[in-house]
Amino acid sequence: MKKMRFIYLIVVTLTTLLITGCSLDDDGSDNCYYIGYASVSGVTGPETVAVNEPAVFDVDFVVLSDCGDFVRFQVSNPSVSGFRTVSPVVAYTGCQCAEIATTETDQFTFQVTEAGEYELRFPTSNTNYITKIITVTE
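C-alpha cells predicted for GOLD domain-containing protein:
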C-alpha cells in the first residue's frame, strides 16, 4: 500500500512538472496568422479591350490592421455563376496588431482569348459588389 501511494505521488509530481514546464502562455513567439478577403472600395480600369490584350484594373481595398499584407486576387469560376467574382486576399500575421484600417491599391489583370462581354464583380461586403462589364473585341 505504501508503495502504491509513493508511485502515485511520483506520477502526480511528474505530471504537474510536465504541464507547468510546457506552458504556452507567453513564450515570446508570434504565431498568430489569419487569411481573409478584403472589402473593395473602388475599381478603375478599361471598359473595352481586344482579344488577348490585358485589361489592368486598379483595385482599392481595405486592410483591417497594420499586420495585414496583400497576397493575391481570388477569382471565382465563371462557369458556375456566369460572372467572375474578384476578391483581394489578405494575410494577417502577428498577435499584437494595431486595428487601423488602411486602403491599399493593387492591380488585377484580366485577359481572355474569346471576344464577348464579361462581368467582373468586386465585393464591397458579403452581399454588395462593384460591377465592371468589359467588352472584348476581335
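Confidence is low (pLDDT under 50) at residues 4-25.
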